[in-house]
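Standup notes
- DV: blocked on the single-chain target, sequence here:
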Amino acid sequence: MIHSNESAEDYLENILILTQEKGAVRSIDVVRQMNFSKPSVSRAMGLLRERGHITMDKDGWITLTDSGRALAERVYERHCLLTQWLVRLGVSPEVAAEDACRLEHCISDETFRCLKQHISPASP
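- DV (later): unblocked, structure below
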C-alpha cells in the first residue's frame, strides 16, 4: 500500500525502469521487481491511478501518465546520480544504491541541483 510520497515514488521509479527494460509492464512485473505481495501492488496501482500517475488498460498493461513519468524520471535521475557519486567516494555499489534510494526522496531540489552541478559541472 502507498503510505507516503516516498512509496509512490518508488513504485513509479520501478515502473519506469521496467518500461525501459521490457517495453510494457503489468502489475506482476512490479511484484517481481519490488518483491512485494500481489495484493500490496494491486492496492498501490489503484492509488497511483486515483492520483493520475498511471493508466491501466483492460488487459492490465500499465502506462505512466505525463505526471507519473515526470515524477519517476525525477526520482530515477536522483537515484542514478547519488549512487554514482557515493561509489566514487568509495562506498560499495550495493550500499551506495541502498543509500541513494533513501536519499533520493528527502533531498531538496536546491541541494540536488547544487550537488548535480558539483558532480557533473557543465562543460564550457
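- Follow-up: The radius of gyration is 15 Å.
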